[in-house]
Amino acid sequence: MKTIEKNQTYTVTIDDLTHEGLGVAHIDRFPIFIENALPNEEVEILIVKTGKKFAYGKVLQRLNESIDRVPVKDMDLLRSGIAPLSHMKYEYQLAFKEEQVKRVMNKIAHMPEIPVFATIGMEEPYAYRNKAQIPVRKMNDQLATGFYRKNSHELLPIEDYFIQDPEIDKAILIVRDILQRFKIKPYNEEENTGFLRHIIIRRGHYSHEMMVILVTRTAKFFQGNRIAEAIQSELPEVVSVIQNVNSEKTNVIMGKEDILLAGKETIEDQLLGKTYRISPQSFYQVNTKQAEKLYQTAIDFAQLKADDVVIDAYCGIGTIGLSFAENVKHVYGVEVVPQAIEDAQYNAKINGAENVTYQIGKAEKVMKQWEQLGIQPDVVFVDPPRKGLAEEFIQASAELSPDRIIYISCNPATLARDLERYGELGYQAQKVQPVDLFPQTYHIEAVVLLSKAV
Ligand code: SAH
């Protein structure tokens, strides 16, 4: 076997894609991962990094072009990882995601027979994100906004983020210029000095209400209120300006403390015709239109009946359960972030839902408490973060013995692992529907119906 060394060049043919959408080529069966390269393309590459089991290559020249390729709008969208699939035709992105789900259903869940449907895509698969989290750094003595270069913390200045609501892109620049005018010091990550770390903006897809969160290293914010006033006067959609304090040397963007600088503490938006209040610390689906399709798929899978008792686990601000509360007997929601539960309680009220009960806590613990209280759910919805369900949760949910479990997942690998476990406990996966919540990126969302074996 040839040894692959850094700085060598090769001509290779791409034969596969990684789950992150990198092209894969093999030299004597040794895999090379290559950005911006699609299956069947022949490319001349430079080896830029080598490891024991694989290497990374960079395209020097493309000798032919895949029929599934589209011109990349801006190379920074690939370099920064903002839109790592933006060199693929959208139809191809959807097929890629379906294929990724099929792979894990086969290899991890060992259920090749379970149907995986074609990914539900967007008509206009860009400009969809209702939230931006933008790092602020000093560049050429100016306050700059942009995105990190992939696998680094080097800032690439960016103005058009392609997948974000364009009104958010505009607002970032206006806020940046106001901060510059007030001579605000950008954060310095190496030294953990400076002041302004991130600008976070949320904009309601239907309401157009905007929230601006300024994440700062220290609490004292000289002229904070005047800056907030300037933001509101230059951006009339902004109804909420919040300072969030994060003094830690960490990759986590937000700290725990929120300080109101101007306007109100929350914004509102709509989903499937219901209204929701959203706090700075609460999770809210970033692609509103596709979230509606995702929820509708989950609801259709659940075949809800008027006397059903339903658990909405990992409920956030209550959006899944409140979408159908009027059609069932009772909804129990559990969520670990206290502000999100406060939002959920408020949201139940403004949408006239009286048959809902919310509990702050870890889902895996609260499920056991509910079991002890004798709650007997017919349907359990789960919508966990990327790490999937804890073993404790899977056991407790199976012991509650619901008829159906609806699993909404943002990570096919942990989904497949959990489906196998549910299979052992008598819950059989029936069908899988991927929904594209994150066009131009490799993130995959999927809904699964599980039924109790009879
Ligand atoms: N269903 C909601 C939220 C989904 S995101 C929606 O569609 O908007 C996942 C949620 O799980 C987040 O709100 C997160 O705060 C919450 N979470 C994470 N770990 C948890 C745990 N162990 N127990 C309960 N909730 C948890």
Automatic annotation (TrEMBL):
Give the TRAM domain ranges. 3-61
Q: Which residues form the active site?
A: 410, 410 (nucleophile)
A single GO molecular-function term is: rRNA (uridine-C5-)-methyltransferase activity
Give the residues the record marks as binding S-adenosyl-L-methionine.
285, 314, 335, 383
GO terms of biological process kind? rRNA base methylation
The record's listing under Gene3D superfamilies reads: 2.40.50.1070, Nucleic acid-binding proteins (2.40.50.140), Vaccinia Virus protein VP39 (3.40.50.150)
Q: CDD domains, alphabetically?
A: AdoMet_MTases
Alphabetically sorted, this entry's keywords are: Methyltransferase, S-adenosyl-L-methionine, Transferase
Q: Which InterPro entries match?
A: MeTrfase_TrmA_AS, MeTrfase_TrmA_CS, NA-bd_OB-fold, SAM-dependent_MTases_sf, TRAM_dom, U5_MeTrfase_fam
Q: Pfam families, from UniProt?
A: TRAM, tRNA_U5-meth_tr
NCBIfam families cross-referenced by the UniProt entry: rumA
Q: Please give the family membership noted in the entry.
A: Belongs to the class I-like SAM-binding methyltransferase superfamily. RNA M5U methyltransferase family.
PANTHER family xrefs: RNA M5U METHYLTRANSFERASE, TRNA (URACIL(54)-C(5))-METHYLTRANSFERASE
- Name of the protein this chain belongs to: 23S rRNA (Uracil-5-)-methyltransferase RumA
Species, as recorded: Enterococcus pallens ATCC BAA-351
Lineage in the entry?
Answer: Bacteria, Bacillati, Bacillota, Bacilli, Lactobacillales
